[in-house]
UniProtKB/TrEMBL annotation:
The lineage of its organism: unclassified sequences, metagenomes, ecological metagenomes. One of its GO terms (molecular function) is kinase activity. InterPro entries: ATPase_NBD, FGGY_N. Gene3D superfamilies: 3.30.420.40. GO terms for biological process: carbohydrate metabolic process. This is Carbohydrate kinase FGGY N-terminal domain-containing protein.
């Protein structure tokens, strides 16, 4: 019988990229993915990101898509 292993999914949302990593119970990285983001600066001291791009950058690697 195969015993399922625990995996821990982490999301690191930075200003220029989204990173998703999966760790096993020993803390070893078993998978990782990084997706660059487009940063918009509509005016001085303002930074914006497209919400759909943020969700896709996280959802795609997290679901294996």
């Amino acid at each position: 019988m195969i015993t399922p292993k625990s995996l821990y999914l982490t999301i690191d949302q930075g200003g220029h990229a989204s990173r998703v990593m999966a760790y096993d119970g020993d803390g070893e990285i078993v998978a990782s993915h990084s997706e660059d983001l487009t940063t918009h600066t509509p005016q001085a001291h303002f930074v914006e990101h497209d919400a759909d791009q943020l969700l896709t950058a996280i959802r795609t690697p997290a679901t294996g898509g």
